[in-house]
Structure to design on (237 residues):
C-alpha cells in the first residue's frame, strides 16, 4: 500500500487526466470522476396571460337624466298633419315671480292651460299676431301634452299660462313656431324636370355633364310624347 502512495506522490505536476490513468493502471480501480459543481436548471412556470380587467359599467349605471333642468322653456313639435306635441318646464324662479305678484292662493286655485295660436301665412316677425286661438285645460301636474289641431299645412305657436278664478289669464311661457305637414300630394308642379321617357331614350348615348336643357334638344326626342302639365326649357314641339 505504501508503494501505491509513493507512486502517486511522484505524479505531482501531471494533468488530472494523466494522473487518473496512472492510478487506474496501478490500482486496477476505475477513476473517480471529479466533483464538478453543477447548476440546477431554473424552474420555469407557465402563467396564464390575460388582459387587464377593467371594471365594466352596467347599462344605466352612473347615468342620470334629470327630470328638470331649472330652465324656463316650452317646445312644440309637429307629430303629423293633425297633431302637435308640446313639452315645457316652469322653473322655481318663474313660479316665485307668479307668487310674488298674485300670491300662493292664486297659484293653487288657478288652472294650467295651453293656448294654441293659428298664425298660418302670417309674418314670422310678428309672432304675437294670430288669426285665432283655442284654449286647452291641462292636468295640474302635466309637463307635456298632445294637441289635436286638425289643420294640415298650417302654422302655430303655443303659450302656457294660468287661468285665474276671476277669468284673468297669466302667461308663463311661449313656444317656438311650428308648421304641420300636408295631408295630401303637393299641388306644385316642377316644370324644370325632364320627363322620364325622354331620359331612357338617350341614356348612354349622351356625354356625362350635359344639362336637361341640352338633353331634350337631341334628335332622339323628336316625335316623343310629352305628358301634359310638364315641360322642359329646351323642349320644342
Amino acid at each position: 500500500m505504501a508503494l501505491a502512495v509513493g507512486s502517486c506522490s511522484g505524479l505531482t505536476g501531471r494533468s488530472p487526466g494523466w494522473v487518473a490513468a496512472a492510478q487506474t493502471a496501478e490500482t486496477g480501480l476505475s477513476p473517480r470522476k471529479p466533483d464538478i459543481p453543477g447548476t440546477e436548471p431554473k424552474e420555469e412556470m407557465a402563467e396564464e396571460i390575460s388582459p387587464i380587467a377593467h371594471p365594466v359599467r352596467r347599462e344605466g349605471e352612473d347615468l342620470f337624466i334629470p327630470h328638470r333642468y331649472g330652465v324656463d322653456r316650452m317646445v312644440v313639435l309637429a307629430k303629423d298633419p293633425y297633431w302637435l306635441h308640446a313639452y315645457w318646464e316652469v322653473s322655481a324662479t318663474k313660479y316665485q315671480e307668479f307668487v310674488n305678484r298674485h300670491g300662493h292662493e292664486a297659484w293653487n286655485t288657478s288652472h294650467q292651460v295651453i293656448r294654441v295660436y293659428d298664425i298660418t301665412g302670417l309674418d314670422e316677425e310678428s309672432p304675437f299676431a294670430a288669426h285665432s286661438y283655442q284654449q286647452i285645460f291641462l292636468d295640474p301636474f302635466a309637463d307635456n301634452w298632445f294637441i289635436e289641431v286638425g289643420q294640415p299645412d298650417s302654422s302655430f305657436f303655443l303659450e302656457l299660462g294660468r287661468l285665474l278664478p276671476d277669468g284673468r289669464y297669466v302667461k308663463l311661457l311661449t313656444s317656438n313656431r311650428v308648421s304641420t305637414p300636408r295631408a295630401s300630394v303637393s299641388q306644385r308642379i316642377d316644370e324644370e324636370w325632364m320627363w322620364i321617357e325622354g331620359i331612357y331614350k338617350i341614356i348612354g348615348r349622351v356625354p356625362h355633364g350635359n344639362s336637361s336643357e341640352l338633353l331634350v334638344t337631341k334628335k332622339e326626342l323628336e316625335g316623343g310624347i310629352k305628358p301634359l302639365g310638364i315641360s322642359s326649357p329646351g323642349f320644342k314641339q
